[in-house]
Amino acid sequence: MTNAVLFSESYYRQVLAEFGYTPFDLRQFDFTLAGLDADTLNARYLCHHHGDHYLRASPQRRIVTTGFGMSGVPHLATVSHILKMIELQLGGERCQIVLGDLDAYNGKAKPYAEVRELAERFREYSLRLGFDDTAGIVRSQESHLPALEAMYLIGRYVEQADFDAAEEDNHGYYVDRGLVDAAMTFRRALSLSLMAADFLALGQDHDAVLVMLGVDEHRYVRFAQKTLARLDEHVPLRSDFALTAAYTRMVRGFGGHPKFSKSLPGSALDVTTPPEEVGRLLTAEPPIPEESATYQLMCQLPRYDAATLLDLHKYCREAGPTWQRAVVDLTDYVIDVISQWPC
């Protein structure tokens, strides 16, 4: 049985060493973005990859993008991504949310009707939470021709080894549980290719693209960046744009799972979790910030600023009345957010 990759500080250091990143590649924020100061950005995100290059483009010529596979209803870490996109949008950034219906259809072999129906509910949920689809974009992959065309055009610039190197860090953990194919099958390669094409298609109309994903998915961005670097004069795709990234920390999963995951039952709070279960799970977490899904979820949510999170770190360790009140407050907030999911 494959051991789970736990997203600890030692994991982050391992990523730097294994993939040849330097502290100058994956960096903490030392600039403002969308009206958020560096302290707040560093509380909200683990690091960025060439985020300063993103800022060199004018606001009208840059865009932030994220996406979610339609393999199941959203858990709270996914919801926090939507809320972060809303925060960036309110700060003046153009934002896109991609609803990965075709990603789940191929990558997770989900029924077509199921992923399409789920994408419509995700779209409605994003709007209910406050995303403005007149100022930004919420779209599915199905019928989005620019990305589908780009996926085909980049095929000659990708090798099998690129797909094999792009497996998620917990791939073996998912394989052992029968949640994903062990090999990089054709349908999974299609799924990854379309994800990269989603990024590259944006670069045809923008000078800078900032991809916002969890740090466990850094290999997907690396796959797209390597493909972009190989484009030449023979492909009718623009390559002279900045493809950058902002990576979030992970929320440790319940029940010993490495993270909140739609694919791992019992690992996360999601939009179907009953209110009484929300309170039970959040209250039962250990008073150790590095091991507490409750504290780590607080770090993901835009409702907490950097100074508040520092205080909450201390209160979590003390495990006293102040922390207990903070957990009750979080519970009420999570229940309200969950209630907005379209049934």
TrEMBL record:
Keyword Ligase: yes
Family statement: Belongs to the class-I aminoacyl-tRNA synthetase family.
GO terms classed as biological process: tRNA aminoacylation for protein translation
Recorded GO MF terms: aminoacyl-tRNA ligase activity; ATP binding
InterPro entries in the record: aa-tRNA-synth_Ic, Rossmann-like_a/b/a_fold
Protein name: Tryptophanyl-tRNA synthetase
Gene3D superfamilies named among the record's database cross-references: HUPs
Keywords: Aminoacyl-tRNA synthetase, ATP-binding, Ligase, Nucleotide-binding, Protein biosynthesis
